[in-house]
Structures are given as C-alpha cells and as structure tokens.
Amino acid sequence: MASMKCKRASSPSPSSSSMCQWKYDVFLSFRDPSDVRKQIGTFEQAFIDHQKCFEDNIMRVETWRATLREVADISGWHLQNRHESEIIQDIVKGIMEKLSSKSSSINENLIGINSMVAELIPSYVGFENNIYMMGICGMGGLGKTTLASAIYYKYSDHFESSSFIANVRERSEKGELHKLQQQLLDEILERSNTTIYNVQVGVKKIKSSGLRHKKVLLVLDDVNHKDQLEKLAGEHDWFGLGSWIIITTRDEHVLVQHGVLKIYKPNGLDDDDASTLFCLKAFKKEQPEEGYMQLSQKVVEYASGLPLALVTLGSFLVGRTVEEWQSALDSFKKIKGNIHDILKISYDGLEEMWKEIFLDIACFFRGRYKDEVIQILENCDFDARIGISVLVEKSLLTVDDRGCFRMHDLLSEMGQKIIHFESGGKLGKQSRLWLVEKLLHVLENDMATEAIQAIVIQYKENDFNFEEVPEVLSSKMSNLRLMIIKETDSWHYTGYLAVRNNQRQLFVPNQLRHLSWDFCPLKCLSSSSQPKELVQLDLCNSRIEYLWEGVMRSVNLKFINLCGSKNLIRTPDFSGVPMLEGLDLSECHSLVEIHPSIGQLSKLRYLLLEECESLTDLPCISAVMQSLTELELAWCSKNSSFPKFTGIMKSLSKLTLCWTAIKKVPPSLIKCLTALTFLDLRATNLKCLPSNMDNLRSLQTLYLNYCKKLKSLPRLPSTIRCIEMKDCDSLKWLPARVKLSIWSQPLSQWLPYDERFSQKEFTILFYFLQGLLCRKTVYGTASKGEEDGSITEFQIIMPSCLTEIVGNSISIELPSNWYNSKWIGLALWASVSHISSIFGIRDHEVAVGKMPQNHCAFELFTTQINVKVKIKHCFNNYLLYLSRDDWLATVGNGECRQIKVIFEGDKLYEMETEFGVSLVYEQDVEEFTQTNVQCLIASFGKVPIYKLTVGDDDDDDEDDDKDDDEDERYKFYEIL
Questions:
Q1: CB atoms within 10 A of CB 59
Q2: Mean pLDDT, residues 941-957
Q3: Which of 81-95, 356-370, 711-725 reaches the highest mean pLDDT?
C-alpha cells in the first residue's frame, strides 16, 4: 500500500459516521495486502523493532497490528503489474458509476409505489442503531421486485454501500449461488476482483470481509429456499449497525424459517391506481380516450390489480380500434383469468420472427448482456435490434442499467409453456432445450428430431458426462441453428469431461449458425461436416488438436475462438473461410504453426495470439489484410522476430509484443504502421528503437517497461500522450521532446520528490511536470556521488507569483479579471523536513463566492501525501497542480472571489514546513528565461536522479568526462 500509517485505537470506525462517504483505496505493487494482513516480510521485522522500542507500552504495538489487519481487508484496486493508466481509468469509471447509481430516484410512473414504500418503511425506522431484515411476499406479477427497487434507489444514499442481487432463484438453480456471493462482496466492498470457488468459501469470505463494520442496504430478489438466505445473509451480525436486508419471495415460509419478523404482502393496485397505470400504457396519459372508458374499466377489472398484467395488456392494446379492443375482451372471457393466458395475448400479437426472439430470450438469455445476445441472434439470421425494440415496446422485455436483459418470471414461464405445448408434450420435438437433464434424456434415448432448433445449457460439475452420450450432435437435428454448452464454473474446470478415447470428431449440422462449447473434449471437427451457415465457432479451452483437415468451405464463418485450447498444434487452411473477421488463439500453448493462408484474410479485424508459448514465427502480414486493427503477440516467449508486414497497414492501430524475445524493430517496417496508436514492447530484448520512430504519426501510447537492455530513445512523434519506462535499467539518453509520464493525465495528484522514487521513475517525473505546467526551465548541478554513485541536484521553477504560506492556510483574493482564457491552473508546493518517519499532509482547496447549486463555498479537492521515509531531518518536496479542466469539472463558471488553501497533517507541529500556492497563467511559463531563472528558483532539497542526457546532442564520451569534472557547473535544460 502507499503508506503504513498506524491509526490510534480511539479512531472512529468507518461505520460510526452518519454521513455516508465514498473512499477508493489503491494498492500499489510494492506491498501486497496479504503481506500486511499476515505481517510478514518487512512488516515482521518492523514489528520486532517496535516491540523493543515500546516495551513499556506493548498494547500500542498490538493496536497497530490489529489496525494493519483491518487495513489489509479494505477493498480496493491492487496495482500489481497493471498499467497506472488502466487503474486510473477503472477508478474514474467506478466513481462515475457510483455517482450515476446514487442519482437514481423513484420513477414518477411507478403508480402507487410511494404508499407501498411508506407502509413497508414507516417513519420510525431509523438508519443507525439496528439491523433490519424485511420480507416482501406475494404471487408473481404483484410488483415485489419493483417495490424493492424503489426502496433501494430511494434510500441507498443513507448507506455506506448497497447491493441489489436479482434473480436469486433462477441463478441458484443454475448453480451460481457462489457467484451471487461474489457479486454481493464486489458491490458492497466496491471492488471487482473477488474470487469464490464454492458457497462454503463464500460464506467464510462474507463473514470475514469486514461487512460487519459497514452499514449496507442489501436486496435479495426472488428467493425461494432458505439455503439461499443462509448463504447470502445468514445472520444479522454479518452486517454493520443500521443495515437493511430486504428479501422478496413468493413463499412466506422461507421468510419465517429465516426469522424475518417484518413481512409485507402487497395487495395489488386499487382501482384508481390500476386505471392510471393501464391508461399510461394504453393511451400514454392518465385518462382513457373518448369512447374507450367502459372498455378500459373492463380490462382493469379483468387484470385484478396485477401491475404486470395491466402493463402488458395496456402495451398490447395501444393504438388499436374499439372493435379490436372488444375482440380482445371476448378472448379474455375464454381464458378464465389464468395469468399466463392473459400474458399470452401480447405474445400472440407478435410477428413470427419477434416470437422466435422472445422464446430464445425467455428460455436462454435472461440476465445476459444485450450486446452479447444481439450478436448471437444476428448470427442466427434474426433482425435482433428491431425485434428487441418491439419486445421492449410491448413490455415483454426490459434492459437494466447494466445493459442486461430482464424478463419477468411469469413471462419466462409463459414462453417455456408455449414451447412445451407446441411439442405436444414430446421432449424430442421441443424447439428448444435448456436443461441438462432434458438434453441427456433426448440423446440417450435417441429422441432427437428435426424440430430441435436450439440447445443452450449451463451445467454444474458432474452433470454432463460425455461417456453417456453416443453422439452429442445428432445428424437427426438437421434444423439445429444454435448450440451453446457452458460450464457454470468454467474458470476452475477440473477435467471431468475427459474421455478415454479422444479420437472422436465433432459433427456440425449444416444449418448450425452459432456453436459455442466450453471444454469440448473432441479432437477435431468431423470431415463429413459442411457447416455452410456457420457464423461463429467458439471452442474455448477445448481439447481440439486441429480444427479440420484440408479446406473446409464455410463461407459465412466470421469468428473463431479457440482460446485456451492447449492441445492445438496447428491452425487449419483458412482459404475456405474468406469472411473471417476475428481469430482468437490466445493461450494455445502447443501451437507451433499458423497456416500462411491467414495472410489472405482481407476481412480479418483482430488476431489474438497471447501466450502461444511454442510459437516461434508468424506468417507475413500482407497488404491484403487491410481490415486488421489489432495484433496481439504478448507472452509469445519464443518469438524473437518483429512481425513481417509486406505493405502499409491502414487500419492496424494496436500492436502488442510485450514479454517476447524480440531484439530489434526493423526500420523498414515503421512505414507500414502509419495508423498505429498503441505499441506495447514491455520486457523485450530491445537495445534501441529505430531512428525513424517519429514516422509513427498516429502513435499515442508506448509501453517500454522492463526493457532492461534499452539504452536510448530516438525522437518520438508529437502525437504521443502516454509513455511508460519503468525499470529500464540501461537507459542513458532521452530526446528533448518526450512529453509524457508514467502517470496518466488528467487526474491531479501530489508528486513527491524524495529518495523513495526509483531513478527511472524520477527521471520521467521530470517530464510529467512539463506536461502539467506546459513549459518550464529546469536546472541541475552535477556533484560527486556518495558510496552508491553520483547524485544530481535539480530544481523545479515555480511561477514568480508564488505566495508563501505562513502557518498552515492562506486565502488568495482574486482580482475581478482573474478568470480568463490565459488562466491554466493552480499550483501548490510543500517542503517538509521529516522529523517523524511516518507522516501525512492533507490539503484542502476551497472556492469562496457565488457558486453553482447555491453554494457560497465549494470544496474543490482534498488530497493527501502519505509517505514513509528512511532519512530524517532532510527536506522533501511536493508539487500539486490543479488544472483549469479540474476546476471547471468541479466548480463550473461560478463567480469565485477567493481561494482558500488549508494544509493539515499528522505531527505538523514537529516538522519544519514551507508551503506555497499560485495561480498559473500562460505568461508565467512563457516568460521564463535564463537571465531571471535564479530569482524564480524555490528552495528544494537533494534528490537522487539518474544521470541522463536530455536533448538531441550527440553521445560524446569526451563531453561526458568534462561534465563529471565540473562538479559545480550549472546546466540549463529547456523542456519543450
């Protein structure tokens, strides 16, 4: 972690505050949270030393131990080997999602919902001292989920964290209860890296995760078994004081068994609310059209106050004539009030293709991402986007805020009953199969027929035994268009689909359009297969050794995914699949040969070969491949050659070659990569880059971390926005126009200048400041080093209007014309002599004046320096720059008349401190000259920096020697 600041035992717990605040923790690569939790490594020795120092107050050390264990359990992002820019993007995304979710409120169109919320959550229910478990119980279609959602969005701001776990029954039946536990922890602890292997492990993680210290709002929707509650919210003390757990179910007995005392049973809508809801759907207003009053009353009466029935029937009848309404009412009389039959009226009004899409979603794709399902349905030759729009308009389908499909249980059950009815009750004649046991029954008893159109199953461990199945894809299924076989816990697959004789081949029916089979145990596709309609072939983690022999004609095939197929030795001849757009061969560890016909795939957009450890060479990437945008060769450890391009690649924007054995980038190939925006060369054997790198006119991101042999960089293109050069130990020379940093803009942060930084990181920090303050003059003085080598002092020039702070705060009165187009930001500087080895400084910037949202004062930023240092009684210096964009994003165009800057810190009274603050204008950086530089220099301490040549000078040994001899000679570098 970034610091090891011990909290006092008297520090308030996170849950003690009534004001809910968000906190995002970032764990950097140099301390693993497990080291902190177990207190091993450097922590172990540190505590041994502390115990000796505090023999008379050993409880203090024990308090530190307990606090560190608590800190280790804090959820956050662990940087490890990820790019800083990636983690910052994740943080920004998380904050934006949090802001978006917190801004939700009860929809105005949720008729009657406010009175239901008031009944379930009376005014006397508090938010602090008790833990409430509340149940919402009733038949399907009453609006239980809607009510729970309304409470969730109305009250979530009162809690530290919240989680809405939907479809508990359905997902539990699929063996995904452990994934619900994972979702619960990820959402409440605000992270995305929880791994749970089974429900027993999940229970232990929930109980030990620190949830008991958090005030949370948890909704468990559609529970049907007490075991689900025991595994997700077993006891009150799993959660912090003030928590609410809301459970929806059709079975009241489940709530009673779990000891839920508060049970609310919705009665449906009263006549007035029912009429309003129906009219809003049927007429888009709260009253019926003229001539429809009596008809509307009859429909409302028929729906018996069920919100789902009212919404569905209203959507079905919208825009229809009086005669059509009367015909519908006549139909209602025949079906005698069965809810499924009522809902089927809307289904019967659909066109045939929309019916097929509805049935696919009802049986297979509830809860799946919209874009993923659209891709599958389009592969099946459906007009998916239009069809989904129609279903949404008819209130048969919704899309949630995560982009996932939601369909009411009753609608899904209705769809499955339709399939059962159409088959005459014969399993082998059902158009769709979605349960493992049903599929096995059909195959084992040779019941398959041409009526079967789609098979989509998710199986749990030991559910699907290949040995019992003579032919998984029977030739009798001549009309099969879709097959997806997914293992529920595919990420911890243990090989139970292994077969004794792996020589079997996979027969692919001619009409099949989409085939996806995780861990397929077969050797190859059958030679008798002619899948002329196949669009997508996904055999991740399969035992495929080769895909097919010779040339297989599949002119519609667009996507092949063999990721993780560790037995794959060679790729097939691609000449029979001219429409191929995507090829994923990543983690095919045995792959040694890629057929040269790949160079003729003019439609190919991406080629992924990550972790193909045995691959030594790649066929030529020809100019025919003008659609190629991404080429991934990361971790191909035996590949020592840069890809061979035979022409200009007009679309190739991303090239990843990290952790390969590449030694050289041929200059002749640079001209072929004019569209390249992203180049990853981390951990390669490069000693230098070609001198014509600046011809990469589109390049924005360049990763060179861990290139241990890299000695110099050439001139780089002006388009560069991000460069990383961590641990380039041999790097001696940089061009003057390097504009970037290992940090990602535009996030503001304190940038420390002390001995904690590695030499390379500090050198690149040099250029980060240039990116922030536009243009600066920096000077250094060379001096003889101490035992470990040379040390170079350097200074950062701050604007001449720098105002030194006396004490710990300052207010800057702003002139009337301060806010103009020339103002670029606010700079803060801190210089601290460390008396204590651990310290923290917090800064607060407050804008005072006529602010947006009627604020008279607006806190701009609160940032903190947390540092552990080894050298005491030396000055360490920090710079924070808040850009104009930061200001606008936070304050807007308010009439600010004053900026107040406050510095706070632990043990500030023990330190020698200096602070400075300045408004920064363009002229401040434009007017720097060598003649006035001396009077603009702020007092900074010694900072170890790797001796580096900056600029386009020749690498001259004679000059280097001369520089070393002239210890006190100042050199001025202008960073352009």
A1: 9
A2: 32
A3: 356-370
DSSP structure class, residue 30: T
Tokens of 804: 């030194």
How many CA atoms does the CB half-sphere of 575 hold within 13 Å? 7
Query: Contact at 8 Å (CB) between 598 and 619?
Result: yes
How far is residue 599 from each of residues 568, 615, 635, 642, 974, measured CA to CA in Å? Answer: 20, 17, 22, 16, 47
Cα separation, 164 vs 188, in Å, equals 10
Dig out the tokens for 309 from the structure: 């029935």
Instruction: Identify the three-state secondary structure at position 391.
Output: helix
607 torsion bin: left (phi>0), alpha (psi -120 to 50), beta (else): beta
Helical H segments across 318-435, by residue range: 322-335, 339-348, 352-360, 370-379, 384-393, 409-422
| CB atoms inside a 10 Å sphere around CB 475 | 12
Report the 10 Å Cβ neighbour count for 522.
Answer: 22
Of 210, 241, 263, 236, residue with least CA distance to 126: 241
Strand order in the sheet with 132-137: 161-165, 216-223, 244-249, 132-137, 262-264
pLDDT band at 98 (very low <50, low <70, confident <90, very high): low
State both tokens at 140: 């399907």
Bridge pairing between strands 949-950 and 733-734? parallel
Q: 710-738 burial string, b = 16+ CB within 10 Å, else e?
A: beebbebbeebebbbbbbbeebebbbbbb
Rg of the Cα atoms in the chain: 33
Confirm if 254 and 224 have CB atoms less than 8 A apart: yes
CA distance 390 to 384: 10
Q: Provide the pLDDT confidence category of residue 39 given band limits of 50, 70 and 90.
A: low
Cβ count near 205 (within 10 Å): 18
**What is the identity of the amino acid at 423?**
S
Which H or E run contains 163? strand 161-165
Q: What is the pLDDT of residues 122-179, one digit of tens each?
A: 765 666 678 889 999 988 888 899 899 999 988 888 888 899 999 899 889 888 899 9
How many angstroms separate the CA atoms of 253 and 260, rounded? 10
Distance CA 965, CA 596 (A): 59
Q: What is the pLDDT of residues 66-91, one digit of tens each?
A: 666 655 555 455 555 555 556 565 65
Task: Give the span between the Cα atoms of 112 and 277, in whole angstroms.
Answer: 9
Decide if 391 contacts 354 (C-beta within 8 A).
yes
Q: What is the pTM of this model?
A: 0.64
The label of the residue with tokens 């999940």 reads 202
C-alpha distances in angstroms, 109 versus 45, 285, 394, 408, 443? 62, 11, 16, 18, 49
Q: How far apart (Å, rounded) are the C-alpha atoms in residues 220 and 202? A: 16
Q: b/e for 158-194, b at 16 or more Cβ within 10 A?
A: bbbbbbbbbbbbebbebbbbbbbbbbbbbbbbbbeeb
* Cα-based angle 285, 291, 292 (whole degrees, multiple of 5): 50
Q: What confidence category does residue 856 fall into, taking pLDDT thresholds of 50, 70 and 90?
A: very low
